[in-house]
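We treat protein structure as text, and this decision shapes the records that our systems exchange. Because each token names a local backbone shape, the row as a whole describes the fold. An entry from our holdings is shown next, in its original layout:
>
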Amino acid sequence: MIALYRVWAMVRRHTILYVRGLDKINTFIYWPLINIAIFGLTAYSASNADTSVVANVMGCIVGWQIMLRISMEAATIVLQEIQAQNIVNILSTPLTFLEWALSGMIIGFFTMLIVWLNCCFWVYILFGVNLWSIGWAWIPFLLLLVLSGASFSYLISGLFMRMGYRAIDIMFSLVWMFVPFSGAYAPLASLPGWINRVALFMPFSYTFRALRIYQVEGILRWDLLGTSFVLNMLFLTLTLLFFKWSFDQSKQLGIARLS
């Protein structure tokens, strides 16, 4: 049975690190701002200052930043424990694997809120585009992006449990490998056919497609959102099982070797 007080203890531990660590400014402010500025200015100039085009582009860029930051921040939980040589201490407590995984999901949810608010703020300040006007329709998109980000975080966490520090480079590059198949930076219809065929199996591609349609037509495509949810749950289950398998393998080989 999951003990919520143990989950909260892990969430609180890493939340304190967020507050005290100035390096988190890079995660929550600097990198999202850089992406918004670069691609926002590109869309602004290419569309002759058409704010509707900028809004369409920025909505998906914000969505991608949310998914990216969730995947990296939730996986960083495992990395920080390895760096602090605290893995053995954690496993000597009653904390279960599911409680540890759930704490990562909760931190990912808080990351989503912070990055979303920050990105929407900068889009409004720089380009006068109010993405908050999407209103409650943001909820299904944000929840699906949390699931996608969590899937990547469990995959990366599993690699950390198998490889230790050697997986750091993979953490920074793995998610970006899927950019062409996401439809976040460009509509899939404008990309080569083979990319579209691969994108059929990517849950976040349906999320970004539905977001583009909603921004242009004001219609929530529940069929696309439903497909995204089903694929997200499949990916989440598979990556969580991989994380658990890596976790068990590391316990057999020796957790201390990761440090």
In short: The radius of gyration is 19 Å. The mean pLDDT is 86. Residues 4-258 form one domain.
